[in-house]
Amino acid sequence: MIKMIATDLDGTxxxxxxxxxxxxxKAVETAQGQGVRWMTVTGRSYRGAMPLMQQYGINxxxxxxxxxxxxxxxxxxxFAEDMDPEKAAKxxxxxxxxxxxxxxxxDHGDYAxxxxxxxxxxxxxxxxxxxxxxxxxxxxxxxxxxxxxIKRLKQEIFEETGLSVLSSFADNMExxxxxxxxxxxxxxxxxxxxxxxxxxxxxxxxxxxxxMIDQFPEPYAMKNGTRExxxxxxHITEYTNEESGVGKTVLKLLGRKNP
Length: 259
Known about the structure:
Low-confidence stretches: none
Strand order of the largest sheet: 5-4-3-2-1-12-13-14
Number of helices: 10
Distance between the termini: 23 Å
Radius of gyration: 18 Å
Structural class: alpha/beta
Largest sheet: 8 strands, mixed
Strand content: 15-25%
Helix content: 25-40%
Number of strands: 14
């Protein structure tokens, strides 16, 4: 019996233009109508995820920043995994020295060293002010067209700090506390609601979804997902994110004919 459905956002629940298809929205409505909990599991912060879902009338729980936070349907913070402040500062110094702009997700909001980050406030006085104010650091995110540099920095930061260093795409890097991983936090959320692992269906497409795929026995990799994810998942969706792969699969699982 399915009691919880957990989906990644970008490349999974969302189309490439960040929209939610009518079929995917219908799947959420159908699932919740049958008493199934819907959980959005994303690398985004609450500020970057909730408005995207809310504009389609979707009210759900959120595992955020790759597992650094869990918020319920009312937006209340239930669980959080904070980064060690000294290690977080070391990451920021390293990125700064490499000339890479970055975003810092904290317990007080989202901030960035560039104005190009849509869902973050620009740090006019520099990233150091976040640490001077002793904000709790939940994730550090950056992008670079130099994918080889990203690959090198991921390895160096992991070796130097022991933090979790993941990617949603080849051109980005997402740093969190070691236990702030999607699969680990989602497991904790399932236990919070007294739901067994075999009663959870998960969907993902990228490298930062691997922990979800590994933690639950009924994972679906998107047809458009990475090769590694598809090799490790029990199932692969018949359709891509552009073709409402999540919604069509969920409606079939719940015994409803696709619209």
